[in-house]
Write a structure and sequence with these properties.
By secondary structure, the chain is mostly helical. It has a single domain, classed as LemA-like domain (de novo design (two linked rop proteins), Up-down Bundle). Helices cover 77% and strands 0% of the residues. The chain has seven helices and no strands. Helix 1 runs antiparallel to helix 2 and helix 1 runs antiparallel to helix 5. It starts with a helix and ends in a 7-residue tail after the last helix.
């Protein structure tokens, strides 16, 4: 085997590695986009359910106007925030907090708790929140895989060459968001 053949084999192996690494980055990048899209879809579902929930609750909660206004305001802020879910994560978390408060306050209204429409909406919102959390966990797993690949040798060379960057994680940053919602009367 001549030196030229050895060089050709090494170059061919290097090209195959570069193609494989590049395709791996593309796959992870598309999985991250898919996860962000899943979060958007579930968030939209939640936004669509909230007006129905507010309409159902209004008839029962005559003394809880402030709570209802907080939920409506939080929903409006999230919808106006625009951008991807990572950019509006703070307002998304605020909306989730106001919904938790609404459900906690609803405990004081037995007729409301027994209302079939309210119970269905509450179940739908809880299901949607679970799906949003699952989508965020999936995104974080994909982001971790991407970040490991971007930082690891020798794939980090390919990442720099083709300008692949690390993905940001969903994380609860503010201490207040980590605490359990307290309802005081």
């Amino acid at each position: 085997m001549s030196i030229v053949n050895i060089i050709l084999i090494v170059v061919a192996l290097l090209v195959i590695y570069i193609i494989g690494a590049y395709n791996g980055f593309i796959k992870l990048s598309n999985r991250a986009k898919e996860a962000i899209s899943d979060i958007d879809v579930q968030s939209k579902r939640r936004y669509d359910l909230i007006p129905n929930l507010i309409a159902t609750v209004k008839g029962y909660m005559t003394h809880e106007r402030e709570t209802l206004e907080s939920v409506t305001k939080a929903r409006t802020e999230v919808m106006q925030a625009g951008g991807d879910p990572l950019q509006k994560e703070k307002s998304e978390n605020a909306l989730a907090g106001t919904l938790k408060t609404l459900f906690a306050v609803s405990e004081n209204y037995p007729d409301l708790k027994a209302n079939a429409n309210f119970l269905d909406l509450q179940r739908e919102l809880a299901d949607t929140e679970n799906k949003i959390q699952a989508s965020r966990r999936f995104y974080n797993a994909v982001a971790k895989d991407m970040n490991v690949k971007v930082e690891s040798f020798p794939s980090n060379i390919i990442a720099r060459l083709f300008k692949f960057t690390q993905e940001k994680y969903f994380a609860v940053e503010a201490q207040a968001e980590k605490e359990v919602v307290q309802v005081k009367f």
